[in-house]
Amino acid sequence: MLRNRPREPFKGVAKFFGFLAKPEIQAAWHQNTGYLPVTGAAFDLTRAQGFYDRNPGTAISIEQVRLKPPTGNSRGPARILRPDP
């Protein structure tokens, strides 16, 4: 995305990506949209906030992704959300 482009205009893009990467932003996005959380930190924060307790069944998709080791098709989400061995 940044290859062969002036660096200055992309400082704002980098700040925006940094904002999106914050666990509290990812957790809010996950909780409000139903999309899987992007990182384990967002999942952990969502759990710590009691979201899954207040909304039974909302963690089912995450639990399903975490059932087996990642494959070539699931490597990103499964690796991120899979607990450390």
Topology diagram in text:
Blueprint: H1 11-20, H2 23-33, H3 40-48, H4 51-54, H5 60-65, H6 75-81
Written description of the protein model:
The protein is mainly α and 85 residues long. The protein has one domain. It contains six helices and no strands. The protein starts with 10 loop residues before the first helix and ends with a helix. The mean pLDDT is 82.
Name the features.
single chain, flat, mainly alpha, 55% helix, 6 helices, 85 residues
Q: Can you describe this structure in just a few lines?
A:
The chain is built from six helices and no strands. It is mainly α.
Kindly report the average pLDDT value.
Answer: 82
Q: How many domains would you count in the coordinates?
A: 1
Write down the overall geometry.
Answer: flat
Q: What proportion of the residues is helical, as a percent range?
A: 55-70%
Tally of alpha and pi helices: 6
Number of strands: 0
The biggest sheet amounts to: none
Helix/strand class: mainly alpha
Note the gap between the termini: 35 Å
CA gyration radius, whole angstroms: 16 Å
